[in-house]
Amino acid sequence: MNEADVRIDRADSLILNALRSDGRLSSQELAERVSLTASPCWRRVKRLEEAGVIRGYHADIDPRRLGYHVMAFAQVALEKKDAAHIRAFEDAVRASPEILACHCISGRYDHQLTVIARTLDSFGDFIRLKIGTLPNVQEIHTSLVLKEVKALAHAAIEIA
Hints:
Blueprint: H1 10-21, H2 27-33, H3 38-50, E1 70-78, H4 83-94, E2 99-104, E3 111-117, H5 120-129, E4 137-144
Keywords: DNA-binding, Transcription, Transcription regulation
Domain HTH asnC-type: 8-69
Protein name: Leucine-responsive regulatory protein
């Protein structure tokens, strides 16, 4: 176990699962769902937040309903791997609303981006004119998402 790992018990697990399925539960609703009284439940939630287990509460938005019908992964290789060049690339990625996620990865590529676009043409323009011109980009490999089978927001985490 990593020193940063947080020990949780069955009640914590129930709280996390309940919040993952509905992050808008009131304190009272959450307490009832996990069979605790409100105060102990609230204290557990606060402890999980302070420990960084609960990182935030977010709306699960469907980009297709907003007109973004293309989702793709773009794997990017950088020319230079020093801290300043990596930071410049990552700062540019953070500033781009079309990039939903960015992960630093191992292997041939350095980063994997999750990108949305309204059309295939606009996706192509975005890759060529935006990603391709970001600081330090050497190579880009893209894969279109054909179907979302399981989203990260709905991922089940084994909580023992």
